[in-house]
Amino acid sequence: MWYTLRINLLLFIVLLSWVCSSVTASVSYDGRAIIINGRRRILFSGSIHYPRSTPEMWPDLIQKAKDGGLDVIQTYVFWNGHEPSPGNYYFEGRYDLVRFIKLVHEAGLFVHLRIGPYICAEWNFGGFPVWLKYVPGIAFRTDNKPFKVAMRGFTEKIVNMMKSEKLFESQGGPIIMSQIENEFGPVEWEIGAPGKAYTKWAAKMAVGLNTGVPWIMCKQEDAPDPIIDTCNGFYCEGFTPNKNYKPKMWTEAWTGWYTEFGGSVPYRPVEDLAYSVARFLQNNGSFVNYYMYHGGTNFGRTGGGFIATSYDYDAPIDEYGLLREPKWGHLRDLHKAIKQCEPALVSSYATLTWLGKNLEAHVFKSESGPCAAFLSNYDPESSAKVTFENVQYDLPPWSVSILPDCKNVVFNTARIKANGSPMKMTPVSDGALSWESYNEETVSADDGDTLAMDGLWEQVNVTRDASDYLWYLTNVNIEADEGFLKNGQDPVLTVMSAGHALLVFINGQLSGTVYGGLDHPKLTYSGSVKLGAGINKISLLSVAVGLPNVGVHFETWNAGVLGPVTMKGLNEGTRDLTSQKWAYKVGLKGEALSLHTVSGSSSVEWVEGSLLAQKQPLTWYKTTFNAPEGNDPLALDMNSMGKGLVWINGENIGRHWPGYTAHGSCSSCSYAGIYNEKKCRSNCGEASQRWYHVPQSWLNPTGNLLVVFEEWGGDPTGISLVRRTQTN
Ligand SMILES: *[C@@H]1O[C@H](CO)[C@@H](O)[C@H](O)[C@H]1NC(C)=O
Ligand SMILES: *[C@@H]1O[C@H](CO)[C@@H](O)[C@H](O)[C@H]1NC(C)=O
User: Fold this and answer.
1) Is the distance from CB of 181 to CB of 188 less than 8 angstroms?
2) Is the minimum distance from the CB of 458 to ligand 2 under 6 angstroms?
3) CB 461 less than 6 A from any atom of ligand 2
């Protein structure tokens, strides 16, 4: 007894010295898996995007990911957040990338850093800074010199920053992999030769940065060596990398889907998610990243075109940082089961045996090593009894059972053991808010501080995305002998806009509101308008709702009123206003005055009580409130409002748009059968997004300033602060 202990101790010391001498860390790969410090690994990873939560939330999110059985945190790098103007960098607050990575390291997890710098991500402009569009001669994501110079510049900036902080695994840090570009394969397919040349260039550029860890390219079948091509999707079991010496990796296992304003809210049953992951692993897969593991919030104006402020994604950790059960717990149980199989998985490939129609066994067994098996039933309706190694097993429909010793089932993807009650929103009891209002004035072409130009200009060209709002202003002269002045048949104004929303004011009065959607950003306003003899002021407030984040050369897509703009029903017939003189004003007066801040808000006269504006367009509202007791996550219930922006203590919590009702059908959905993002939906006929996350760390104990800008007109007395808590 004593003797064996001594032997073990000796062995331990020998092992320890071996571990210490191999501290010159390394990451490589072979056809089976990623190899970290000489060991093949089956890795679970989860996407958590640092700017979609607050630094105060990061340690808890990372710990919950670790407790959920993850080995890796994956994030994109958000170029437009880091370089707001050329050469002017920002890495503070929610954009403190180094702090985020160090927190992951402290928790003992690895990092997969997706530099892009194109990231899509339902993020404004796909992560590109808007100024990049105005670099002379530029075309995004193709064999274009100015673009390549800018892309190399930012990629180098990030890689050098990681190197100087010693964050690559090859330096003892947590980053085991990076990504260059993002889902470029489909674009390359469309644009052909310059796309192929660009792929080769991007690969060479990235590899040349010598990070000491592998690079991947997702959805890129022709990823040049040594870059690993990887799969994104709801299912990836059928994917194979382009070389047999590259491991089979799933960079985005979609846990749900994003919500768009005007869309219903997607969700994905965890039984199907677990099934897709088990099928991937039983087919020789070795790396799974959940996209998203925590989706979070598109704070401020960071959401891509028509993307909702909530980026919850039906992820295992919800928008507010709380566990979504049973999703989180069921995946944790899956990860535990797979970790038990890891010794068998990393030392062998799958051998397939047919057990019947839609029934399979995948067995991992090396000559002398351990054995692990997956028993699968692909039938979406019927359960099955199968015999494997002389033992009978029951398989529910559309499920996989996991047997880490080839005998005992420790997990079935359709049998949920995890529990936990759903979350609910409860109004904070002392929450009655007392509001004041201020009317944003309508601007007209004759106002002093406008910009006069001939014709109609593209919106982003004028605003450079400094604001969602751009006024298009012109005058229409009506002669006293116009027929409509006598017969009362009002002329019809028609305005064609490239998007995304529009408010039409005639002589300062709202005449109509129109808006597009994710699949139809363009819009047309057409309505009869009240005009009088003399000069009539036409003020069009064009509103952008995030810039596009995906599509071939999305940088060339327009927004704003590009015309034609016509006035029909005059003596002359139809008057074309398109190329006459227009004046422009970027942004709102309230934005220029910083009404969302304490100092700015005191620069105008607010009214309250019986004078409080109700259901009036273009209205600013403000109130103050004390932070509620406790640490429950908080949100604002905005259901009584239409569309606009919300700030707390000067921080923009995002665009609100509860006035946009979710279209589509929300019939009940079974976990079994092929999932797609249209299959399981909620909120039909209600607001796409009613609640807006208020991070705890943005609050002071007392006197918090809440400012709302409302475009359409709403009832601020219906706004309430709510807590997110468990139902019992
Ligand atoms: C797993 O890999 C082995 C070895 O390459 C191969 O024979 C087998 O067909 C693969 N299984 C699946 C399901 O891809
Ligand atoms: C964009 O602005 C430039 C001047 O800054 C102008 O020459 C150009 O015509 C504008 N383009 C559009 C589409 O409005």
Assistant:
1) no
2) yes
3) yes
432 with 445, same domain: the answer is no
Interval 353-409: pLDDT, tens: 999 999 999 999 988 889 999 999 999 999 999 999 999 999 999 999 999 999 999
Catalytic residue among 83, 169, 252, 342: 252
Which among 283, 347, 374, 400 is the best mutation to test ligand 1's pocket, defined by most ligand atoms within 8 Å of the CB?
A: 283
pLDDT tens-digit map of 89-113: 999 999 999 999 999 999 999 999 9
Q: Is 284 in the pocket of ligand 1 (CB under 6 A)?
A: yes
Task: Give which of 272, 276, 268, 227 is closest to 250, Cα–Cα.
Answer: 276
* Cβ of 349 less than 6 Å from ligand 1: yes
Distances (CA, A) of 574 to 481, 494, 566: 16, 10, 7
- Alpha helices (H) in 430-567, listed in sequence order: 459-463, 483-487
Beta carbons of 296 and 117 less than 8 angstroms apart = no
Distance 416 CA to ligand 1 centre (A): 29
Active site annotation includes 183? yes
Residue 90 located in a structural domain: no
161 contact partners, CB below 8 Å, separation of at least 6: 91, 97, 98
| Residues 613 and 698 grouped into a single domain | yes
Rounded CA-CA distance 90/652 in Å is 17
In a shared domain, residues 539 and 453: yes
287 half-sphere exposure, CB direction, 13 A CA radius: 35
Residues 430 and 456 in one domain: no
452 and 579 in a single domain? The answer is: yes
Compute the distance between CA of residue 697 and CA of residue 294 in angstroms, rounded to an integer.
Answer: 18
Name the residue at shortest CA distance from atom 13 of ligand 1. 283
Examine the domain organization and report whether 565 and 621 are in the same domain. no
The residue whose two tokens read 């000069």 is 535
